[in-house]
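Handout, page 2. Input:
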Amino acid sequence: MEYKNLEELIEVIRTLRSENGCPWDREQTHTSLRPNMLEEAYEAVDAIDEKDATHLREELGDVLLQVLLHSQIADENGDFNIEDVAKELKDKLIHRHPHVFGNTKVNSADDVVVNWDLLKKEEKKDRKSQMDGISKSQSALMTAQKISKRAVKVGFEWDKVETLWDCVNSEMEEFKQAVQEKNISHMEDEMGDILFATVNLARWHKLDAEQCLISANRKFEKRFRKMEELATKPLTEYSFEEFDKLWKQAKNNIAQMV
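Output:
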């Protein structure tokens, strides 16, 4: 299979960054493009969630644009180019899949993960702590989940789920105490502990905490929009009891549509 369009795309990016190219593209740096990388990645995830192949193709193109722009900037700086990026990724994938490209035998996907972690550890010998290498730019919820998983890999885990539930309940009580004290700093600290404990509860049950919250956000937004549709007066004029009734009506209305 030929990749004529990919080669031509690389040349387009090079032209845009050239002296006679686009003024905006020429001004960009790794730092200025940072927000774009995050935005395009999130939009690609949205397309995946929508199960819209056409939209996903478009958004993956936008993600690829970011990769190519960063690679072109690095090439101009004498650091690396897109070929170096591709080679490093290719070598990494081959090295971490010895059961495909070598003689290693695996019996399950779990075996693959174990081997992957061992090979990764071998590659990252400069990392001294299990906490090294965790992204500082991802969401706090994703970071909490990653930290928790890293700790579990060395055996730092609750002995049973009941103990974990005790931890969650204990953090709730400590937050209530902080509220009674009217100590904002203490409240923030305890709320953080509640969230972290809840992430661990999700992990224990093999749930992705980030996806759980994304689903909850969507569900709330959908119900709230329906509530706005059903409202017979401005929402600001509703009492708590009226809100409760309207919320239940919206919830039932949506359930009947499924």
